[in-house]
């Protein structure tokens, strides 16, 4: 209907025709007066608010399956997380902590929430909440280990090279083990020093001892000496770095995260699982490249371009670690479990007083 013209009254006793009394049909946009009156903002449809019931204390994927754990650790060990700025990390921390406290930022989507949660997990310790050392984070595992392991596999023939690279590797492992320890109990400088010196000594002695035993064996055998040294060092370094947990225990909780006490039995199980994961993590990177490099060295290519030896080793190791790191971290659930009956008697009594029917407790195994 035209502006300023009143609608025609209906006939007496009749009804309004269908086209009268209704809103006019939408007109095409143009320079006319209709284009100058957009829909008021208060009538525009707003996105639905994100519910506060999403459990971001747990990973996004089902951790009772290997596939779910693998997806989780592919996110946690993503090396691109190292490039995030301090402001981005603090913003992720703010979003996660606000959401846990029941405050949902306006406009936050579920994907944005999970992205913030995984940024937070990659940089902050799950028990203490403190920001972890950059080189000790799991997202630094691939770039750091590919460099160190590649050099260990390349420079293994001389004693000084063995000493230097085993020392570098154990220094890095000490930082990683401290950064990813389980629980919130502090580690004293003397405990750190003992673990570091013991692991480094064990790795060097193993490497040099095996090196002397393999002098008269095929060259391919000698290439596996660094792996044996790393496996031995992990068996020494991790328990020593986490010796306080073995003495005093790690926190155990119920399914809802309520702390029930500290258990040394849980600490033993956690450390065993981490040792197995670390050795498994190193195995492909230290077992596959030596075979390939041994074949390449027999051909004319590496004889003509010997300077490509180290870059090729590092590249092959990196390719293995991209998959081995998250997959071996996923061998055991991060939130591991244990039957109450398997705990120490005094811890069992302590738990029975709080919940007589509880059968299973949970703990963070560390990484």
Descriptive account of the structure:
By secondary structure, this protein is mostly helical. Among the domains are: 66-122, no CATH class; 139-251 and 261-331, no CATH class. 54% of the residues lie in helices and 5% in strands. The protein has helices spanning 66-76, 86-100, 110-123, 141-154, 159-179, 189-213, 219-222, 225-241, 243-248, 264-297, 300-304, 309-329, 345-354; strands spanning 250-253, 259-263, 335-339, 360-364. Strands 1-2 form a two-stranded antiparallel sheet. It has a two-stranded antiparallel sheet with strand order 3-4. The longest helix has 34 residues, at 264-297.
The assembly state of the depicted protein chains is: single chain
Order of helices and strands: HHHHHHHHHEEHHHEHE
Helix-and-strand structural type: mainly alpha
Shape: globular
Q: Approximately how much helix is present in the residues?
A: 40-55%
How many individual β-strands? 4
Tell me the distance between the termini. Answer: 73 Å
Average pLDDT confidence is 77
Number of helices: 13
Strand proportion, as a percent range, falls in: 5-15%
- Order of the strands making up the biggest sheet: 1-2
Low-confidence stretches: 1-5, 10-36, 39-46
Main sheet makeup: 2 strands, antiparallel
Rg, nearest Å: 30 Å
Catalytic activity: L-serine(in) = L-serine(out)
Protein name: Sidoreflexin
Keywords: Amino-acid transport, Membrane, Mitochondrion, Transmembrane, Transmembrane helix, Transport
Main location: mitochondrion
């Amino acid at each position: 209907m035209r502006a300023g013209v009143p609608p025609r009254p209906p006939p007496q006793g009749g009804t309004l025709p269908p086209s009268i009394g209704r809103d006019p049909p939408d007109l095409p946009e143009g320079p006319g007066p209709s284009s100058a009156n957009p829909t008021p903002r208060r009538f525009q449809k707003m996105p639905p608010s994100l519910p506060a019931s999403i459990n971001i204390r747990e990973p996004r994927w089902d951790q009772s399956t290997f596939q779910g754990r693998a997806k989780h650790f592919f996110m946690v060990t993503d090396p691109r997380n190292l490039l995030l700025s301090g402001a981005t990390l603090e913003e992720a921390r703010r979003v996660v902590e606000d959401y846990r406290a029941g405050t949902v930022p306006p406009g936050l989507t579920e994907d944005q929430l999970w992205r913030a949660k995984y940024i937070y997990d990659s940089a902050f310790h799950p028990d203490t909440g403190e920001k972890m050392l950059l080189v000790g984070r799991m997202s630094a595992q691939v770039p750091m280990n590919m460099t160190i392991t590649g050099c260990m596999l390349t420079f293994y023939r001389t004693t000084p090279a063995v000493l230097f690279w085993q020392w570098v590797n154990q220094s890095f492992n000490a930082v990683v083990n401290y950064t990813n320890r389980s629980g919130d109990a502090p580690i004293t400088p003397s405990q750190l020093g003992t673990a570091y010196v013991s692991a480094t000594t064990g790795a060097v002695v193993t490497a040099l001892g095996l090196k002397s035993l393999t002098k008269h064996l095929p060259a391919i055998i000698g290439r596996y000496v660094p792996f044996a040294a790393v496996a031995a060092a992990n068996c020494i370094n991790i328990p020593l770095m986490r010796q306080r947990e073995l003495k005093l225990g790690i926190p155990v909780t119920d399914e809802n995260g309520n702390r029930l006490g500290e258990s040394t039995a849980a600490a033993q199980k956690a450390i065993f699982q981490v040792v197995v994961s670390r050795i498994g993590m190193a195995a492909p990177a230290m077992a596959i490249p030596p075979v390939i490099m041994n074949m390449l060295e027999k051909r004319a290519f590496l004889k003509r371009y010997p300077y490509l030896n180290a870059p090729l080793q590092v590249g092959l190791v990196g390719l293995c670690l991209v998959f081995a790191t998250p997959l071996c971290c996923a061998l055991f659930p991060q939130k591991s479990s244990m039957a109450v009956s398997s705990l120490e008697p005094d811890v069992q009594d302590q738990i029975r007083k709080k919940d007589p029917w509880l059968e299973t407790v949970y703990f963070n195994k560390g990484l």
